[in-house]
């Protein structure tokens, strides 16, 4: 009987796969992803680093090695320093306004009757591309000299109060801020929707307990709401920071980087594809990558820490 049982077990037991077979099967499955990573990320990154250390002529041909001179040029040339300043203004204002306004609106319309209507209205710009939004706002900012008919919406509105028309995107004093308004118009709805979903996750028991303890609205907001939605708030801020650091479409479609509105991504495009100055263009691209990578690494580590806490 024991012999028959052993034979049945031998017949019905699934065959064991060798470690070598499993290893090769895994390699076959991950090979396409590895190839795509090497071809479309690792190789371009290495090639860009090499180009950033070289000089090219007006035709885009490499003429020799210059080491870190391209990077030194970025941090010493007045024009490029102005571009870095613009990126810093974008980083501070655009991130603060989108996240701040999104949070304020999410808190104000939370669980009220018009919540769905307000969210829908603010989220509609997200359905529009950055280029399309730039075209729309160019019509808003159109400027005609004083005394002529103002066809730009904003200057026409100012004319109702007998205020002189302003060259909103031609005046370097506030052209960058005018473009930031476009970005805020697009992305505030996104921040609002994500943060509103986080607010829904705050337990009602905690809110009721705080009310019973006599906590005011501001106290509950800073001591309860903000700490409870802090993980989501961190994700939204990180997303906005990365978006702003590589902002391109709005600037390119609105001013092309003129009138003191140029940013790093647009200058990289200009140097690399229009001027064929691959050295400076590649150095700008690497600089942008170096700035963005730490933000991504910090966010990934924070998300992993939260998963371990769960």
Could you describe the 3D structure shown?
The chain has helices at 2-12, 19-52, 69-74, 78-108, 115-123, 130-141, 153-159, 175-200, 204-212, 217-228, 230-245, 249-254, 264-274, 278-309, and strands spanning 54-56, 62-65. It is mainly α and 310 residues long. It has a two-stranded antiparallel ribbon with strand order 1-2. A hairpin with a 5-residue loop joins strand 1 (54-56) and strand 2 (62-65). Helix 11 (230-245) packs antiparallel against helix 14 and helix 13 crosses helix 14 (278-309). The longest helix is centred in the first third of the chain and has 34 residues, at 19-52. The protein is flat. It starts with a helix and ends with a helix. The mean pLDDT is 86.
Give the CA-CA distance, first to last residue: 52 Å
What fraction strand? under 5%
Rg measurement, Å: 28 Å
Largest sheet: 2 strands, antiparallel
User: How many DSSP helices?
Assistant: 14
Based on CA inertia axes, which overall geometry fits? flat
Determine the fraction of residues in helical runs and give it as a percent range.
over 70%
**What value does the average pLDDT take?**
86
Helical/strand content category: mainly alpha
**Strand order within the widest beta sheet:** 1-2
String of helices and strands:
HHEEHHHHHHHHHHHH
List keywords for this structure.
mainly alpha, 310 residues, two-stranded antiparallel sheet, single chain, flat
